[in-house]
Design brief:
Blueprint lengths: L1 E7 L4 E8 L2 E5 L6 H9 L3 E6 L11 H8 L2 E4 L11 E2 L5 E4 L2 E7 L8 E7 L8 E5 L17 H16 L6 E4 L17 E2 H7 L8 H9 L8 H11 L15 H6 L4 E4 L3 H6 L6 E2 L5 H8 L6 E5 L2 H12 L6 E6 L1 H6 L9 E2 L1 H10 L4 E5 L3 H6 L6 E2 L5 H4 L8 E5 L4 H12 L5 E4 L2 H8 L2
Parallel strand pairs: 3-4, 4-5, 5-6, 10-11, 13-14, 13-15, 15-16, 17-21, 18-19, 18-20, 20-21
Antiparallel strand pairs: 1-2, 2-3, 7-8, 8-9, 9-10, 11-12
């Protein structure tokens, strides 16, 4: 018997490969899906079933691609806001055999209307569930977001409350296998730990401890979540089926001359924020490689051609992996060597960093042409903020930069300076010449005050 969790870094996506009796199933595969075939064949198993817990918003499903590779059938829930063209519909009470394992289907709407959970039973011990694939309904330490249907927000929050109780009825012994871990945009309160049981969550998960349905609904509808534009692309592709990932996940190498003449829609500098701020190519924006899964979907539009700038080939490879998984992968090439470019006389831009003392001085002086711009999310700002600052979430600068005056001075801040540099890079690329970043940002501000 095989059970393997496959984690996709960056997106914090968790998929699963299970098998017994020569058969195997995959739950929520990612787009670059050869890994499942390789692992199954190494164990002498043939993938016969592919299960989707829901239509994902944050990544391209690999289910239709994996089905073509293996001949397996894909199963998806009803009510998917459209026809899932590559899948058969499976419903509450259906049972699928994988050797001695049984996968029993639970309809668990709330996060999305089509959401399913899949309970695992061992036919040799059929009385209680061994575990349950909870998708985006139940995480370790949190539950799924319910903001995708704003006109029906109380209804879907109530559906999630009911679905969570349905999962809990499987028994405290059931191990939970969610579709995401900490760091995912699909939840904000997930524990770093990626293993738990229904019983542990029932006793300790703050949202599962809420006994009143109305109280639960009130909590969910008052949550703050952001939906990057690329979610709409994911929703479409996960109905019609996305294309296979490129076979080579490494951009074509580019010279400096090729980079300068390539006419890409975006030049993406994936180096660390301080490296970007110290010196970057004019017109480039900063999306540090580790931040691409969270922020690329805000600043890169469907179909845009991209040129990448990095410190190393490894950075280029990891960046392409991240972009492929969200289908923003029209990459014309990658360049390594910003310092040599500067040494060759290439024009460079930089963004200064300023200290807490300088921020305090400006706040006290209240210069009319200066704004301290806080780009953290709404929950962070609600917990702690600096009086006199203005708030625009970093992702929403993709459009709201148009409301700012390029002739004014702006200091960008977040929790540490990382997101602030992303925001500053976006403004810098759009003609803002009077920018700096508060190094340390809210962390430094709070430390100053003990």
């Amino acid at each position: 018997m095989l059970f393997e969790k496959i984690k996709t870094a960056g997106l914090s996506h968790l998929s699963y490969l299970i098998g017994a009796g020569g058969m195997a199933a995959v739950i929520d595969p990612r787009r670059d899906c050869e890994i499942y075939v390789e692992r199954a064949r190494n164990e002498g198993l043939r993938i016969t079933h592919i299960f989707e817990t829901h239509r994902n918003e944050d990544l391209v499903s690999g289910a239709p691609i994996l089905a073509k590779l293996t001949g397996a059938e894909v199963f998806h829930g009803p009510n998917a806001d459209g026809e899932v063209e590559y899948a058969k519909t499976t419903r509450d009470g259906d049972c699928h055999a994988i050797g001695q394992l049984e996968i029993r289907v639970l309809e668990t709407p709330g996060h999305t209307f089509d959401h399913l959970a899949y309970a695992i039973f061992d036919s040799e011990y059929p009385e209680t569930a061994v575990g349950v694939f909870t998708g985006d309904a139940l995480f370790v330490g949190d539950v799924g977001r319910t903001d995708f249907y704003p006109e029906r927000k109380r209804e879907v929050a109530g559906l999630l409350f009911d679905s969570l109780r349905k999962i809990c009825e499987l028994g405290d012994q059931a191990i939970i296998y969610p579709a995401h871990g900490a760091g995912s945009v699909c939840g904000s309160g997930m524990a770093d730990r990626e293993f738990s049981t229904v019983g542990h969550e029932r006793r300790n998960n703050p949202m599962l401890k809420i006994e009143s349905r109305d109280t639960f609904i009130d909590r969910k509808v008052n949550e703050n979540h952001y939906q990057p534009p690329y979610f709409r692309l994911m929703e479409h592709l996960n109905l019609v089926g996305g294309n296979a990932a490129p076979r080579v996940l490494m951009p074509q190498p580019m010279s400096l001359d090729e980079l300068s003449s390539c006419e890409a829609d975006r030049v993406i500098d994936v180096r660390e924020p301080l490296a970007y701020a110290a010196g970057h190519l004019p017109g480039s924006i900063n999306l540090p490689v580790d931040m691409i899964p969270a922020f690329a979907g805000w600043f890169i539009a469907e179909g845009e051609e991209l040129a990448l700038v990095a410190s190393s080939q490894d950075q280029l490879s990891t960046t392409m992996e991240h972009l492929v998984r969200i289908a923003l992968d029209k990459i014309v090439g990658g360049y390594v060597g910003v310092v040599p470019a500067a040494a060759s006389g290439k024009s460079m831009r930089s963004i200064p960093m300023i200290s807490t003392e300088e921020v305090e001085r400006r706040l006290q002086g209240k210069p009319g042409d200066w704004t301290l711009l806080d780009v953290r999310d709404a929950d962070e700002r609600k917990a702690h903020s600096i009086k006199g600052s203005r708030h625009i979430y970093v992702g929403e600068l993709n459009e709201m930069w148009k409301d700012l005056d390029p002739g004014q001075r702006y200091t960008l801040m977040c929790a540490s300076g990382m997101r602030a540099t992303v925001a500053a890079g976006w403004l810098d690329a759009h003609g803002f010449d009077h920018l700096d970043v508060y190094l340390g940002s809210m962390g430094a501000w709070e430390a100053r005050r003990g």
